[in-house]
Amino acid sequence: MSQSVTVNLQAQGRRLRIEADGHHRDYVPLWLRERSPDDATRDPYTGQRLVEAAELPLDLMIETADVADGQLKLGFSDGHLTTFTLAELLNEQASDSPRQLWDAAEAPHSKADFATALEDDSALLSMLDALHRNGFVVVSGVPANNDGMQPLIDRIGPLRRTNWGGIADVKSVANAYDLTMTQRGLEPHTDNPYRDPIPGYIWLHCLANAAEGGDSTLADGFMAARLLRQRDPNAYACLTRVTPSFRYCDADTYLESEGPLIELDSRGDPARVRYSNRTENIPALPAEELEAYYAARKAFYELITGEELTLHLKLDPGQMLIIDNYRLLHGRSAFQLAGGVRHMRQGYVDRDSTASRRRVLQQRLATPQAQGEPA
């Protein structure tokens, strides 16, 4: 390591302080002991823990701590010895690749090429990094057939199947089972908040878009949450606290789930937004709580529908829009079929498989592959 690092024991070995480049972090012995990277603690092949962490002594102490050549050697009061790589230890709490929140004026140009991402791991990683960072990516050159996006899904997937099947049509039909299958405009929304789990990513492939209207809209829900917290803290608090339910029913399906419009993670930051006017059901809360919720929801709605945050785009045939369904709200303008056909195909890919593929590619491309190792 290039940075200057010192360690010292405090509180009779109940704390280990690591100082690096003017900053310090304190560690608890049990936290270090259960994360010991040695083969006695973790299986060398799977990386999974071999010791039962709950059986480690609560009064565990660190008896020795030495740093040399970027390594931290520790001796614990239970007799265990282990060695950490300091760089990995100090990066333990580092967040994943940062997200970049945006408004309409600063909206990113998030683009990828289908054939290149299909064949080249670096291009696929670039696409997935952009998707994670910006919440969406527009992919060009998708084959103009019903399942044209399937090969790229297979590089990441699997495809999430629902009651509507796998890759499904999004076009106007008679006796539509959902408002997406009509010509009406759709307000900004997130998809399927009535499912558990909610699909992580929406893949929307354009086969034809000659109808008058039908432009897509996107709004960054995390940016909307940030602005709401700044401008109306009480409304923000209300939308993180009150939990509506969401329901979808037809002749063969009854789906229901619940969650706040702004869901926070363990650090208190937005982890997911929900908005679905068509399927939301707010319970009969006390009158004051309902009034506060309705005012807060209106304030959020005005943000996600306002031009400050709304990105307008119209997909061309052969283009595909991949959307982070936990973060972005999407909608469309109404369209008239007299001007031509509007035919989209849509599928879902879950969040865990997408994140896994991105992280595996990050690790693989950061390390030179062995000659002949398959990608």
UniProtKB/TrEMBL annotation:
<dbReference type="InterPro" id="IPR010376">
    <property type="entry name" value="GBBH-like_N"/>
</dbReference>
<keyword id="KW-0408">Iron</keyword>
<dbReference type="Pfam" id="PF02668">
    <property type="entry name" value="TauD"/>
</dbReference>
<dbReference type="InterPro" id="IPR050411">
    <property type="entry name" value="AlphaKG_dependent_hydroxylases"/>
</dbReference>
<dbReference type="InterPro" id="IPR003819">
    <property type="entry name" value="TauD/TfdA-like"/>
</dbReference>
<comment type="similarity">
    <text>Belongs to the gamma-BBH/TMLD family.</text>
</comment>
<keyword id="KW-0560">Oxidoreductase</keyword>
<feature type="domain" description="TauD/TfdA-like">
    <location>
        <begin position="106"/>
        <end position="348"/>
    </location>
</feature>
<dbReference type="GO" id="GO:0046872">
    <property type="term" value="F:metal ion binding"/>
</dbReference>
<dbReference type="InterPro" id="IPR038492">
    <property type="entry name" value="GBBH-like_N_sf"/>
</dbReference>
<dbReference type="Pfam" id="PF06155">
    <property type="entry name" value="GBBH-like_N"/>
</dbReference>
<keyword id="KW-0479">Metal-binding</keyword>
<keyword id="KW-0223">Dioxygenase</keyword>
<feature type="domain" description="Gamma-butyrobetaine hydroxylase-like N-terminal">
    <location>
        <begin position="8"/>
        <end position="85"/>
    </location>
</feature>
<comment type="function">
    <text>Converts trimethyllysine (TML) into hydroxytrimethyllysine (HTML).</text>
</comment>
<protein>
    <recommendedName>
        <fullName>trimethyllysine dioxygenase</fullName>
        <ecNumber>1.14.11.8</ecNumber>
    </recommendedName>
</protein>
<dbReference type="GO" id="GO:0045329">
    <property type="term" value="P:carnitine biosynthetic process"/>
</dbReference>
<dbReference type="InterPro" id="IPR042098">
    <property type="entry name" value="TauD-like_sf"/>
</dbReference>
<dbReference type="GO" id="GO:0050353">
    <property type="term" value="F:trimethyllysine dioxygenase activity"/>
</dbReference>
